[in-house]
Specification:
Blueprint: E1 3-6, H1 13-20, E2 24-28, E3 34-38, H2 50-56, E4 64-67
């Protein structure tokens, strides 16, 4: 499982959906960054994402996108 990092520009919805493989859900991190995950990842039985889970402090499955700086959504 991957954690893609975007920090130079705000991605489009389509880009985020392609990276996580489905509908997106935003997880707000304590440091102000945002983690984008597949909303239906558990239902689709995706594998746990260790790195994303550590960032979020909870179980995250499937690929994720870390948005920092200019990459963050509003």
């Amino acid at each position: 499982m991957k954690v893609h990092t975007i920090k130079d520009k705000r991605p489009t919805l389509e880009e985020l959906q392609k990276l996580v493989g489905g509908y997106i859900e935003v997880v707000y991190l304590k440091n102000g960054d945002q983690l984008i995950v597949d909303e239906d990842g558990l239902m689709r039985q995706k594998f746990p994402n260790r790195d994303a889970s550590i960032l979020a402090g909870k179980l995250i499955v499937g690929d994720a996108v870390l948005l920092k700086g200019k990459g963050k959504l509003r």
